[in-house]
Amino acid sequence: MPEKVGTGQKSKRRILRECFAVLFIFNFIVLLAVLITWAILQPKKPRFTLQEATFFTLNVSAVNLVSAAIQLTVNAHNPNSRVGIYYDNVDVYATYRNQQITNHTGIPPFYQGHKDVNIWSPLIYGNNVPVAPYNGIALRQDQWNGKVRLIIKIEGRVKWKVGSFVTGRYHIHIACAVPILLDYTNKTGVLFGNETMYALSQSCSVYV
């Protein structure tokens, strides 16, 4: 004959079921509260502006080799009044016609508070970076014509902070156009020895 389950075992099982039910309800309520708070606050993406770009060098040493050194001034603004932002694994580099022409320069991790504005000043550079031959030829032609358009890209991860709650990581992609004139009749940059500084105040595209 099968053994009968004792009253003590039944009580333990009932207590375990009740504990799991309470824990589930508690987690559900917490998650619901976070989602409602998130929906009410409606966090906005950070805003980025490329203020200045100082060119130390931008040369095509061969049809497939490019050297560049550029000092940037980037304005990072958190427009949220109740949401903070953690930045991590942020890298900055330059591209020409969708091809990278500098190495990655890292931005140290940091927290950006409500309505805060931070200024980044990364130096991005690359020496004899390989590119497709047609891009090397195109860059030489653009320099000869006096107009060059680069894209500064910033990539990393962010976490949103609402009160004491911190979300998981999200990828952030930022693209800033750098249109510069190199000819002497319409030059937009300011010369400092061998350096040329361009005041841009260029808004950047942000994708999270």
Automatic annotation (TrEMBL):
Pfam families assigned: LEA_2 (PF03168)
Span of the signal peptide: none
One of the protein's GO biological processes: defense response to other organism
Transmembrane segments: 20-41
CC terms in the record's Gene Ontology section: plasma membrane; plasmodesma
Xref: InterPro entries: LEA_2 (IPR004864), NDR1-like (IPR044839)
Membrane topology: Single-pass membrane protein
Protein name: NDR1/HIN1-like protein 1
